[in-house]
Amino acid sequence: MGLRSRNKVSANFNMSSMTDIVFLLLIFFMLTSTLVSPNALKLLLPSSKAKTLEKQTISISITKDIDFYINENKVIAASIEQELKLLINNEKEPAIILHTDKTVAIEHVVKIMDIAYRNKYKIVLATSPN
Questions:
Q1: How far from chain centre, in Å, is Cα 105?
Q2: Cα–Cα dist 86/95, whole Å
Q3: Is 126 helix (H, G, I), strand (E, B) or coil?
Q4: Of 24, 43, 92, 129, which residue is most buried, by most CB within 10 angstroms?
Q5: What is the DSSP track for 23-34?
Q6: If you classify domain 47-129 with CATH, what class do you get?
Q7: What is the mean pLDDT of the segment spanning 111-126?
Q8: Is 71 left (phi over 0), alpha (psi -120 to 50) or beta?
Q9: Coil, helix or strand at residue 68
Q10: Measuring CA to CA, how many Å separate 58 from each of 4, 11, 18, 46, 106?
Q11: 51: which residues sit within 8 A by CB, 6+ positions away?
């Protein structure tokens, strides 16, 4: 009388639940990484309720020490226009977003806006949301 057990233990491991978890983590990190601000310079921006709708092609930053940065690269104030012309040479509708510390004198902001006006670039002043 040979009694055999009908319950067989499987030695296989099911990976489907593990792949679901990895996929969900991948989606989570992809979504949260797009929310990170690309501006690496710490500036105290003026506040506003308006939202910028322009496509950003070039970022210009002015720090409280009156240092000028184009896309996180420090630039001498006298060569800003030449650097912009090199970066925007073939753009159809060039747009500049201007990040300035709120303690910066208006004359430095107007200087960048004047460069944009002379070269017919669209320029947007960045603000921090309320």
A1: 25
A2: 14
A3: coil
A4: 43
A5: HHHHHHHHHHHT
A6: alpha beta
A7: 86
A8: left
A9: strand
A10: 76, 58, 42, 20, 20
A11: 129
Contact 63, 43 (CB under 8 A): yes
Q: Which helix (H) or strand (E) holds 47?
A: strand 47-48
pTM of the model as a whole: 0.56
d(CA 68, CA 100): 9
> Is the CB of residue 43 less than 8 Å from the CB of residue 61?
yes
- Give bridge partners of residue 125 from the DSSP assignment: 98
pLDDT tens digits, 76-109: 988 888 888 888 887 777 788 888 888 888 898 8
Can you give the residue ranges of every domain in the chain? Answer: 47-129
70: which residues sit within 8 A by CB, 6+ positions away? 58, 59, 60, 80, 83, 84, 87
Q: How far apart are CA 59 and CA 52, in angstroms?
A: 13
Give the max Cα distance, the chain: 102
In angstroms, rounded to a whole number, what is the distance separating the alpha carbons of residues 61 and 88? 17
Cα(106)–Cα(17) distance, integer angstroms: 58
* Residue 69 backbone dihedrals phi, psi, to 5 degrees: -130, 135
